[in-house]
Amino acid sequence: MSWWIIAAAAVVTLFVITAVPAGTLAGTLVAGVALVLLLTFFIQYGGARVEVDAERFRAGRALIERAYLGEVEALTGDDARHAFGRDCDPKAYLLLRSYVRGAVRVEITDPRDPAPYWVIATRAPERLAAALSGNSVARS
Asked: Which superkingdom, per the lineage (predicted)?
């Protein structure tokens, strides 16, 4: 939520610093362009899909067949925060959404995949872990 407030303040600031010397029309155009760019960025950033079906697991742009999934671990609190930071393997695939507090770490067993595991931010880590471990279908 705080990013939306910061973005709104930035748009207003751009309007004022442009409108004062160049006029209201110029300020409105600059603020409008900034608003469209920020909205596009936020929607793109927050729109990463996490889907599990019977054959595949999709997290953002990454897709893997479920046959290549190993151990699945739901992470919350400090465990989730550390999974994206100090405990993270640089080769791991990360789907980081900073506004989400939970995560799931999924071991990747495909020998051709350079990522040893994926860490996926999710609001419902237990539900996603259950879907990946069992035969459930989940969307986030």
From this structure: Bacteria
Calpha distance 120→37 (Å, rounded): 26
Q: Are residues 60 and 102 in the same domain?
A: yes
Calculate the average pLDDT of the chain.
Answer: 90
Mean pLDDT of 107-119: 95
Q: What is the pTM of this model?
A: 0.69
- Same domain assignment for residues 23 and 58: no
Helices (H), the chain: 2-22, 24-46, 77-83, 125-133
CB 116 within 8 A of CB 91: yes
Do both 127 and 75 map to the same domain? yes
